[in-house]
Amino acid sequence: xxxxxxxxxxxxxxxxxxxxxxxxxxxxxxxxxxxxxxxxxxxxxxxxxxxxxxxxxxxxxxxxxxxxxxxxxxxxxxxxxxxxxxxxxxxxxxxxxxxxxxxxxxxxxxxxxxxxxxxxxxxxxxxxxxxxxxxxxxxxxxxxxxxxxxxxxxxxxxxxxxxxxxxxxxxxxxxxxxxxxxxxxxxxxxxxxxxxxxxxxxxxxxxxxxxxxxxxxxxxxxxxxxxxxxxxxxxxxxxxxxxxxxxxxxxxxxxxxxxxxxxxxxxxxxxxxxxxxxxxxxxxxxxxxxxxxxxxxxxxxxxxxxxxxxxxxxxxxxxxxxxxxxxxxxxxxxxxxxxxxxxxxxxxxxxxxxxxxxxxxxxxxxxxxxxxxxxxxxxxxxxxxxxxxxxxxxxxxxxxxxxxxxxxxxxxx
Length: 413
Ligand code: UD1
Known about the structure:
Blueprint lengths: L1 E4 L5 E5 L4 H10 L7 E4 L5 H12 L3 E5 L2 E5 L10 H6 L7 H8 L1 E5 L12 H9 L3 E5 L2 E5 L7 E3 L5 H11 L5 E5 L5 H12 L4 E3 L3 E5 L7 E4 L4 H13 L3 E5 L7 H9 L3 E5 L2 E5 L8 E3 L11 H8 L5 E5 L10 H6 L3 E5 L2 E5 L8 E3 L3 H13 L3 E5 L1 H7 L3 H7 L3 E4 L2
Parallel strand pairs: 2-14, 3-13, 9-10, 17-18, 21-22
Antiparallel strand pairs: 1-22, 1-23, 3-5, 4-5, 6-8, 7-8, 10-12, 11-12, 14-16, 15-16, 18-20, 19-20
Helix pairs in contact: 1-2, 1-7, 4-6, 5-6, 6-7, 8-10, 8-12, 10-12, 12-13
Bound molecules: uridine-diphosphate-N-acetylglucosamine (UD1).
């Protein structure tokens, strides 16, 4: 449980961790070769441990060197992924493409992960089918076969992050060029492309598509994972909701444009320069309207955190969720803390109140948990948040970083 005494204005600077969502597919890229792949700036998080455990179960040697992960070995990969690991985290499903490309077969349980409504993998499977894979789904397990993957053009109905990553991973070892039309362009996907290029499969981005030139074999590489924009955004919102001043160093402010623009619109002072993003909020902000969209639109992962911030803005705000329409699991907990929120279809409406009050609440997933932490930092009195294991899936050193900014927070038994 995390206990927070709210009402302190946060001030100071924190350093961004490496991006969880960029590190996860990068670990899967390590499955594509038996040469060493060295990933720098990997955050210490439960989700990363889960991905590394999966890589080990499939036959890789995995070692940590400070914040770098080295993946090596694995001349042959096990074709079957343990159900327990894939069930725990959706990103594990990205092992399908690499295992299939290297072994010609793969057995992969359908994925688990955050409770964000139905999260199908139809785009992953139909895309891989275009590359020549054949599938059968039996008892919740995907049985995949492909004697050799061939490059093809795949059109995505929706620019899915996972499907784009899956197809880049598989395309890296396919015969010829794979083209993905309407790909996801999130910085984490672009980072995977940079890693695959370094491993020997050139990835190039065009206006409406991305291409990858498949190779018979890939080499090793050293790669530095980008900073985590969602973590950085969460700390900026912590500064804004507590009417404080917070800077995130070692970040990529250009990856935070959508958030910084909304904060500025709400009346928060924002500044970005040279790897540092900063907010200063000494007055009560006013309400704004947010809509989540694929990048460069407003990120769905910051929708719960920004709604927490908007609960104490002046007037009416709204957040429309178009990426994961069911992503409102945190609303009930914020209402218990006094927020005036109403969900109507894919939109949550907020009528700003002066101040939230502490309560005892449950974190149902990573970003919902982040929203509750933000609310607690600004609330009168004490808030106890259960389900902190969700927070440790996504936020490295959360308690220490918040303390460094002046928050009164402790991890209680
Ligand atoms: C990734 C991120 C997650 C983020 C999301 C959107 C990781 C580990 N997770 O998740 O934090 O919130 O991108 O930015 O990087 N969909 C389908 N069929 C598919 C695949 C997806 O219908 O085959 C739908 C999903 O149900 C969802 C939407 O597409 O409604 C977006 O999913 P996607 O972009 O694939 O997100 P993830 O890769 O799961």
